[in-house]
């Protein structure tokens, strides 16, 4: 006997089954919380992993958590509030030196997005003598960068005046207002800079070995959720490969995340400059030589007593397994 279900009843049953299947599928996804430092003009790259199905096709329900700074990110990671973070490897090295359970998996931002922005009247670094330079808090990237530039040109810190003026926007405003003669500012601000300002030295030129951001998790997470960690890194690789090859999508994501107006030129400038400077690495390489250089710089600066064994605070095998999936 053949039973024929009435059309309306059939559609209702189909809808219920579909909803149950979707609910079951959602329950199968493993939650993963990923912390990123407060989005800027290049945010499209770091937030792309939260778009489309990059994470879900790897079995993860991803939540991206924006954080104010690296210190907050590491505290949240070690407290178990986050499963992974994207932060400065310098902070991770310092934490590891103090015995913290941290592991650097790979570094997606090997480049420096900042540079030395100056008034057009300054034609060379030596012209900075006696001038006011806008910097940030002690130990920050802007300060590390300006110190490297001055050292390379044999200019003593006592020959210039430093002004701690907070974030990139604050330092940029100080330059445009004439409060400072030079400043370490993110390159994206060149897109809106007046004609009397120029980028005299790029961060890549001054600090070719500096690594901006790496992916970090805890040893506990690797032990207890190894497969999820591998899937997360694979999702990041998928997302970054997409981001660098889809300019409009990445720029649009940046605009949405920082609430930029459609005519704001910074997101487009940041995208093009990031690729030009090779400041993003979709393969999330683990550059041990550069990390060793960084920790030696921390020793020179007095932040670290002695170099640490990088083998104890890195986990290259997670990235290696992730790349197999991403291929």
The CATH topology name of the largest domain reads D-Maltodextrin-Binding Protein, domain 2
Write down the secondary-structure element order: HEHEHEHEEEHEHEEHEHHHHHH
Would you report the number of β strands? 10
Radius of gyration: 23 Å
Number of self-contained structural domains: 2
TL;DR?
The chain is an alpha/beta fold. It has 13 helices and 10 strands.
Could you describe the 3D structure shown?
- With 327 residues, the chain is of the alpha/beta class.
- The chain folds into 2 domains: 199 residues, 3-Layer(aba) Sandwich (D-Maltodextrin-Binding Protein, domain 2); 93 residues, D-Maltodextrin-Binding Protein, domain 2 (3-Layer(aba) Sandwich).
- 43% of the residues lie in helices and 17% in strands.
- The strands form 2 sheets. It has a 5-stranded mixed β-sheet.
- Strand 1, helix 2 and strand 2 form a beta-alpha-beta unit.
- It is globular, with a radius of gyration of 23 Å.
- The relative contact order is 0.18.
- The N terminus is likely disordered.
Per-chain topology:
Blueprint: H1 7-28, E1 30-37, H2 43-47, E2 60-67, H3 70-78, E3 84-87, H4 89-97, E4 103-109, E5 114-119, E6 132-135, H5 141-152, E7 161-164, H6 168-176, E8 182-186, E9 197-202, H7 203-206, E10 213-217, H8 219-224, H9 226-245, H10 247-257, H11 266-276, H12 288-300, H13 316-326
Helix pairs in contact: 4-12, 9-13, 10-11
